[in-house]
Amino acid sequence: MSGFDACDSFLADCPARLTVELIADKWTAVVLYGLSKGPVRHGELLDLIGGISRKVLTQTLRRLAAHGLVRRHAYAEVPPRVEYELTDKGRDLLPIIESMREYGMQWLNADGACTSAAA
Amino acid sequence: MSGFDACDSFLADCPARLTVELIADKWTAVVLYGLSKGPVRHGELLDLIGGISRKVLTQTLRRLAAHGLVRRHAYAEVPPRVEYELTDKGRDLLPIIESMREYGMQWLNADGACTSAAA
Questions:
Q1: Which residues fall within 8 angstroms of residue A3, CB to CB, at 6 or more apart?
Q2: Which of residues 27-56 of A touch B (CB under 8 A)?
Q3: Residue A89 lies in a domain
Q4: CATH number (domain holding residue A95)
Q5: What's the pTM value of the predicted model, to 2 decimals?
């Protein structure tokens, strides 16, 4: 935690807070999570993530792509195939999300869909 | 990242997302950060955190206390002294906030008030 000492005053645009904003959206963490194992198609993500609508998933993926966290690949096939994958910038968020998952299980009595991990 | 494999589907109440909600408020990360070195008085926090108003700091501290992240100590002195300190539950968020600070400096071109740490 040496970084703390270098920071004697904090502003609202502190780097930690900008990162919070990046992942504060309701679906960001779970969508990044869903992309963590490799490229995935829109429909596969839809099946993977409980409770998200097709429209909201599309909006979330667009926002993540605009922030450079996700890359969209459209393959010129019949029928057309579109896949999404994490960029390096997106992948670097995964350890943070994983730490937050562990914190949630320890302190927030949360197991959600991850009951097997919590057992 | 072994936890990922245990989780085949994700819901909105995934533990990671509950943790995101806990720290998503604009001031939570910086206030926890400001308490990281030990008990601090309200006025000291106000000086430490740029841009926060007295009222918003009070509201934030109340919310953090309600979530069990911060403890309030009122000393029966003249003049009365009130200090705030992190609980274990609050302290366990610090490594996550520190990881987010590092991420922000690497990927979001953020240095904010932490220019000496970014140098």
A1: B98, B101, B102, B114, B117
A2: 27-30, 33-34, 36-37, 47-52
A3: yes
A4: 1.10.10.10
A5: 0.78
